[in-house]
């Protein structure tokens, strides 16, 4: 099946957090986020909804330069800072949340690096502003470590919880840590989702590649990440050290900086 050509961006937090509380560089500032959205629009990208994206998987044509904006984890700042900016530009997006931790904290991180997550009410508010919702597991456990019964809880039960919170169908999934294997992909498919987002990985409806945007990004690296060639050059450079020179030549400092920056582009949080 032909894959839709949409660019899929992956954000985590949008807030003023600082490196001490954000060692994984997951948070972009509200100012940077606004500038990035403006740049996306000025560059002729056409933001699409996740429903559009899923229809694209079924063969419905997408606009040229389609872009899907995704957020993982459901940090409070996404509701406070990103949702209003997106709403002001009429830009849709989709938010992947660990449904069992709504209103709590990102408990999968070190205690000093935890951040507040949206509540049920926050989720309904952003949903009303044009942010669709999807499942990011129940409690952000790495799904590849779970029994079949627990995997079912994290996919099937979680979807029902989230659908009742937002009063809408939930048809897409994002793997915690971007971590998956054949059994996990099969479980997500069997749970009735139409697609699942990963980070790098394979091009498959249940492991869709995304381009991460993080605290290290400048406007220059952000612009590079919008290039069609970026994902394949990035994954080649991570799998084969010999390809890094090529990646560096093509993309400049963006790739090298990310290697120096540590784990953030290797596994999502
Ligand atoms: Zn996550």
TrEMBL record:
Its main location: secreted. Residues 65-269 form the NodB homology domain. It is found in: Secreted. The keyword DNA repair does not apply. Coiled coil: none annotated. PROSITE patterns: NODB. It comes from the Bacteria. This is Polysaccharide deacetylase family protein. It comes from Nocardioides panacisoli. Keywords: Signal. The keyword Chaperone does not apply. CDD domains: CE4_NodB_like_5s_6s.
């Amino acid at each position: 099946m032909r894959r839709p050509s949409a660019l899929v961006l992956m954000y985590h937090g949008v807030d003023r957090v600082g490196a001490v509380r954000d060692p994984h560089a997951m948070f972009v500032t509200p100012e940077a986020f606004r500038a990035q959205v403006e740049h996306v629009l000025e560059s002729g990208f056409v933001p699409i909804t996740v429903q559009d994206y899923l229809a694209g998987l079924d063969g419905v044509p997408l606009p040229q330069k389609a872009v899907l904006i995704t957020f993982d984890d459901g940090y409070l700042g996404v509701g406070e800072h990103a949702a209003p900016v997106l709403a002001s530009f009429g830009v849709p997006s989709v938010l992947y949340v660990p449904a069992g931790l709504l209103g709590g904290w990102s408990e999968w991180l070190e205690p000093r690096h935890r951040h507040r997550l949206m509540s049920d009410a926050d989720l309904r508010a952003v949903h009303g502003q044009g942010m669709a919702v999807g499942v990011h597991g129940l409690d952000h456990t790495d799904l590849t470590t779970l029994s079949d019964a627990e995997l079912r809880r994290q996919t099937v039960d979680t979807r029902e919880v989230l659908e009742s919170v937002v009063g809408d169908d939930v048809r897409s999934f994002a793997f915690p840590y971007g971590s998956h294997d054949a059994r996990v992909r099969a479980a997500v498919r069997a749970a009735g989702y139409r697609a699942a987002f990963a980070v790098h990985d394979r091009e498959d409806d249940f492991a869709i590649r995304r381009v991460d945007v993080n605290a290290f990004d400048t406007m220059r690296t952000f612009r590079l990440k919008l290039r069609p060639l970026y994902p394949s050059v990035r994954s080649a450079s991570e799998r084969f050290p010999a390809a890094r020179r090529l990646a560096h030549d093509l993309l400049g400092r963006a790739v090298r900086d990310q290697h120096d920056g540590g784990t953030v582009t290797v596994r999502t949080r």
